[in-house]
Structures are given as C-alpha cells and as structure tokens.
Design brief:
The chain is an all-alpha fold. Helix content is 78%, strand content 1%. A two-stranded antiparallel ribbon has the order 1-2.
C-alpha cells in the first residue's frame, strides 16, 4: 500500500468518525426521557423543580438548537476534550483510561485462547477432511457457534462458581481468578468460528494447482502444509482475527455484564442506562476508531505477507 493510499484511508477514517459522531449524538438527543432530570436525580425518586432543570440545561448548553449543540461538542472533541461524565464524576477521557486496561487484558487473553485452540484444530480438521476427527471437530465448532455468550457465561458461573466453588462468582475487579471465566466464554465462541474459517481456508489452498505440483515433485505433506499452504492462507485468517480483535477492544458488553468485568462494555451499558450521553459518545467513538485502525493495520500487513501486493503498491 502506497503512502497516497494510506493517506486516503486515514481521510476515510476521519470522515467515518464524523458520521458516527453525528449519528450517535443525534440518537442520544432523540432518546426518550430527560437527560437533565436523570443527571440531577439519577434513578432515585427525587422531586426536581422545573427551574432547577432549566438552569442545568442552560448551563450545559442543552437549550440550544441541536446543530449548535453538536458543533460545540465536536469543537471540544477536536481540542481533546471528550466531555464530563456525570455518572462517574470525572472527565470522559479519564473514565476511558480507567476501564481500558481491563478491556485490553480480556481482549488479549481471549485472542490468545482462540489462536491456541482454533489454528491447530482447523488445520487438523482440514488435513483429515471428511474423516471421523473432522466430523467430531466440526460438531464441536457447530455447538460453540450456536451457543450465545451470555448462556455459556451463566453456565460456567453455575458450574465452576456455584456448584464446584472453584472460581469466584462476583467480579467487579481485574484479577486472574476473575479473568478465567470471561476469557473462556469469549474464547470458546471465537475459537469455534475461527476453527471453521481456518479449516475452510486451508481446504481451499489444498485444492490449488501449486499443491498438486508440489506433491508431483515428491515434496512431503508436512512441507507442503507448513511452507506452502499456511503462508497463502494467512491473509483471510488475519482479516478475521483483526475483526475479532476490534470487536473485543470495543468491549464485549454481554460477557462483561455477566461477569461484572470492569471494562468498556460494562461501562457503556451503564452509561446508556443513566443517560450519560457524553460518556456513551466517547466510548462509541473509541470503538469505531479501534475497528478502523485495526482494519488499516491488517491492510498494511498484507503488503508484507503477499509479495504481489508489494509489487503492485510500488
């Protein structure tokens, strides 16, 4: 990918972020309920006068037309000010930095879990295509793909937390003992999807003419698999891995809620409940940025993995 193409992609990222920010801002403003009343009283049944509500609305600039509110918020964003979270009583950027490490830990652990199991199983299933082992692995992956994250998480909590008492039930903190169950929940579902993709990609490469030619030249099956097939199968696998990692870095909301894991996913759900619109907008922008940056990194990695793309980019 040339410098001109990279600059074009960066410009696309900026335009997409502007569009996402506008849509998110509009949806939060159009959502039912009064955010100012929620800001003052929270979920408590407190009597709030209309004068108090009007005063806070004027102070926050929420009495201005929608477009002026958006432009004011966007101007603050461009200056590095993501706003203030009334739910957490601190700047939105500080809230993101507080919960980002937990999300990174869960994302990295789940990704490692997925790769450790999915890549060997997918290759093994492809090599033994339509055999008993292949059917067994495909059956397991079908079950894994079919199970919702929240159901698997609840079952793991019930078995290992409640019945066996091996792992803690209540989360709310970052720790290895708390990490095991959410990592397994996300890792199993992701590994099931990734195993099927690895199998399909390796099978497609094994049917190519260069594999037939390598076998005709007397090359061993292990050499063909590891030196010829897998390098050519890397591109689609890296794409899928990048999408999975982007999803995890955005916060796995359902799993984080089940295990009370203090990451961005749990935080954004809580902020929506409390109508903390500035925190919601900040997290949504972070998620969108992570997806696009990871996609850009994946595209850039293609140039190093595929010599044909390197030559085309020159």
């Amino acid at each position: 990918m040339s410098k001109k193409q990279v600059l074009a992609r960066i410009w696309q990222i900026i335009l997409v972020l502007l569009g996402i920010s506008f849509i998110t801002f509009a949806l939060m403003m159009l959502a039912p309920g009064d955010p100012v009343r929620q800001m003052i009283a929270g979920n408590q049944d407190i009597m709030v006068t209309q004068a108090e509500i009007d005063a806070v609305r004027h102070e926050l600039g929420l009495d201005k037309p929608f477009i002026f509110q958006y432009l004011s918020w966007l101007g603050n964003i461009l200056q590095g000010d993501l706003g203030f979270s009334y739910m957490r009583k601190k700047p939105v950027f500080d809230v993101l930095m507080d919960h980002l490490p937990a999300t990174l830990i869960l994302a990295m652990a789940s990704s490692v879990f997925m790769i450790i199991f999915a890549v060997p199983l997918g290759i093994f299933s492809a090599v033994h295509c339509n055999g008993p082992i292949d059917y067994f692995i495909r059956g397991l992956t079908f079950i894994g793909v079919s199970m919702p994250n929240f159901w698997m998480g609840l079952m793991l909590l019930w078995i290992f937390g409640l019945k066996l008492g091996i792992l803690p039930i209540v989360g709310g903190r970052v720790g290895f003992d708390i990490l095991i169950l959410p990592m397994t929940t996300l890792g199993v579902v992701m590994a099931a999807k990734y195993t099927r993709q690895v199998r399909a990609t390796v099978l497609e490469e094994l049917s190519q003419d260069y594999v037939v030619g390598a076998r005709a030249r007397g090359m061993s099956e292990s050499y063909i698999l590891w030196r010829e097939v897998l390098p050519n199968a890397m591109l689609p696998l890296i794409t899928l891995f990048g999408l999975s990692l982007g999803n995890l870095l955005g916060g796995a909301s359902v799993v984080e809620m089940v295990f009370s894991w203090p990451g961005l996913g749990l935080t954004v759900v809580q902020s929506i409940t409390y109508r903390d619109f500035q925190l919601v907008q900040g997290i949504v922008l972070w998620i969108a940025l992570m997806y696009m940056v990871i996609n850009l990194v994946v595209d850039l990695s293609y140039n190093y993995l595929d010599p044909r793309l390197r030559k085309a980019g020159k």
